């Protein structure tokens, strides 16, 4: 990470340091400049070497951010963080130990906003230091209702396959898992330093202005908008507000930047008018897309098919260059959009098409619980796609299940899609109807919040043992353990908050499995 002294952290965040000196027993010599006498450590000179928001992740040299949480207050764990080696805390109030000694802290009005201010300065310093050495630095922001994490993983993989992106452990920095909000984005930034060539940022939002805040923090050179769906529609107040928010990323780009636009999505296509940056358009349906080539670079998938394992295969055309073959290892035709988005951003960053295609063809899933395939020894195949769910991703996963399930008995184990607001019942009803129309053999609906999905399937004509409703994951596991047979293909999908990803793991680990192996 970019190193700041405690005094600099206070200045950047508008906070105040308490107390004026620190107990040497709390401060390892590795985080104090050599000019400072260890017998009298001046707190302002302390230099944290990492940033954590979970006291269990604290280590010697950490800055612990005591942010308020949904179920717990981080201030309650300041002592635990220092016991694990933290040397400074970022707090909203003073916290003392059992003897009344105040822990070394920077006190700020809002710890999360203070993280953002520190991340903003870190990006500025990396850019300045690299520019002074004549070295490039590229920040890519990625947003969209579906596919952000997969696209982020793919793009980071492409960058790491280049000489510049693999020269050091921090040459390419991308989020862990789905760190994409006001806390996750700073934590990603804090892993970068002056050796970072590529910084990939995933940007999520639950309301207007959220993407604008993140974009102002990291100042992206390239902005990628994947799609506008109905995820979080309840929180946003409607799909139009989602589109407005996603487009904030393109508005934040400087004229010298690059907007990567999915022209297959009408709402994203309309965002072209919201940016003055140069444009890269991508499409999986190149027929009739020629007009976009006159306004920017067109990146297209030609002749898209799926192989026997359900993976996309296509010829990637970047501008006027000769097409290059991509044979993906991801499962599902819907991943073509993510592959094209990653290819477009990499091309905008100057990576040759041949290198892009080679990397995309080498990469499997980069994050857990996203179309994660496990083939059990007994012949049952489990596809665990339960990290998240919304109507768009649910439809895509079910169609993949139907395509892969030719000649096999197919199971859809589905939980609720959360945060859909007033559209929830209609959205779940539509999914239940789709399951029947795709001729999925068995449907297991888990949890009361998804009951509309079950009722819809029954009304559509699924009855008897074809369609089951269970109250919780344990009941679903019991049903599946009893009825799964060799050759069955099982899809598990729900929103993250429902927790069916853990059910997917339990099913995958059954029949003697002790690990999860993604499709090779």
If you had to describe this structure to a student in words, what would you say it looks like?
This protein has 520 residues and is α/β, with parallel strands linked by helices. The chain has three domains: 6-109, MurE/MurF, N-terminal domain (Udp-n-acetylmuramoylalanyl-d-glutamate--2,6- Diaminopimelate Ligase, Chain: A, domain 1); 113-362, 3-Layer(aba) Sandwich (UDP-N-acetylmuramoyl-L-alanine:D-glutamate ligase); 372-509, Protein-Tyrosine Phosphatase, Chain A, CATH 3.90.190.20. The chain is built from 18 helices and 20 strands. The chain has helices at 6-13, 78-83, 111-132, 148-160, 184-189, 210-218, 233-236, 239-246, 248-251, 266-269, 290-293, 335-348, 353-362, 391-404, 424-437, 451-460, 473-483, 500-509; strands spanning 16-18, 50-52, 62-65, 88-91, 105-107, 138-143, 172-173, 198-202, 222-225, 258-262, 278-283, 297-306, 312-318, 324-327, 372-375, 381-384, 410-414, 442-446, 467-470, 489-493. It has a nine-stranded mixed beta sheet, with helices on both faces. α12 (335-348) runs antiparallel to α13 and α17 packs parallel to α18. The longest helix is centred in the first third of the chain and has 22 residues, at 111-132. It starts with 5 loop residues before the first helix and ends in an 11-residue tail after the last helix. Residues 36-40 and 512-520 have low confidence and may be disordered.
């Amino acid at each position: 990470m970019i190193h700041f002294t405690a005094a600099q952290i206070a200045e950047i965040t508008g906070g105040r340091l308490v107390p004026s000196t620190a107990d040497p027993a709390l401060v390892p010599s590795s985080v104090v400049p050599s000019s400072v006498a260890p017998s009298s450590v001046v707190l302002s000179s302390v230099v944290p070497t990492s940033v954590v928001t979970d006291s269990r992740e604290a280590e010697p040299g950490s800055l612990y951010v005591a942010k308020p949480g949904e179920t717990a207050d981080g201030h309650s764990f300041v002592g635990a963080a220092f016991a694990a080696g933290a040397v400074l805390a970022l707090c909203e109030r003073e916290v003392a130990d059992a003897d009344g000694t105040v822990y070394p802290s920077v006190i700020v009005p809002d710890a999360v906003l203070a993280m953002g201010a520190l991340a903003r300065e870190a990006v500025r310093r990396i850019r300045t230091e690299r520019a002074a050495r004549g070295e490039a630095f590229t920040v890519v922001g990625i947003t969209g209702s579906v596919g952000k994490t997969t696209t982020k993983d793919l793009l980071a993989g492409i960058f790491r396959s280049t000489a510049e992106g693999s020269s050091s452990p921090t040459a390419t920095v991308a989020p862990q898992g789905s760190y994409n909000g006001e806390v996750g984005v700073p934590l990603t930034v804090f892993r970068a330093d002056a050796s970072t060539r590529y910084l990939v940022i995933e940007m999520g939002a639950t309301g207007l202005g959220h993407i604008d805040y993140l974009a102002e923090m990291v100042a992206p050179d390239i902005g990628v908008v994947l799609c506008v769906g109905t995820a979080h529609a309840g929180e946003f107040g409607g799909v139009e507000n989602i589109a407005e928010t996603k487009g904030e990323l393109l508005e934040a780009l400087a004229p010298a930047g690059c907007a990567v636009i999915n022209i297959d999505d009408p709402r994203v296509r309309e965002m072209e008018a919201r940016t003055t940056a140069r444009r890269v358009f991508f499409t999986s349906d190149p027929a009739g897309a020629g007009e976009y080539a006159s306004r920017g670079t067109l990146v297209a998938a030609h002749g898209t098919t799926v192989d026997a394992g359900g993976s996309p295969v296509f010829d990637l055309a970047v501008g006027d260059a000769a097409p290059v073959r991509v044979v993906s290892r991801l499962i599902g035709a819907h991943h073509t959009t993510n592959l094209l988005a990653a290819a477009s951003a990499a091309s905008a960053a100057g990576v040759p098409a041949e290198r892009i295609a080679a990397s995309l063809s080498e990469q499997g899933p980069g994050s857990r619980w996203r179309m994660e395939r496990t083939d059990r020894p007994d012949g049952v195949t489990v596809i665990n796609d339960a990290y998240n769910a919304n109507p768009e991703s649910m439809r895509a996963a079910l169609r993949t299940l139907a395509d892969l399930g030719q000649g096999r008995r197919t199971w859809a184990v589905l939980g609720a899609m959360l945060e859909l607001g007033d559209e929830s019942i209609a959205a779940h009803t539509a999914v239940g109807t789709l399951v029947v129309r795709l001729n999925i053999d068995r449907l297991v609906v888990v949890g009361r919040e998804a009951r509309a999905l079950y009722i819809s399937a029954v009304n559509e004509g699924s009855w008897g043992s074809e369609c089951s409703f269970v109250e919780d994951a344990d009941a679903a596991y019991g049903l599946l353990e009893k009825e799964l047979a060799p050759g069955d293909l099982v899809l598990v999908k729900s929103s993250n908050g429902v927790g069916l990803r853990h059910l997917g793991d339990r099913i995958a680990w059954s029949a003697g499995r002790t690990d999860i192996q993604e499709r090779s």
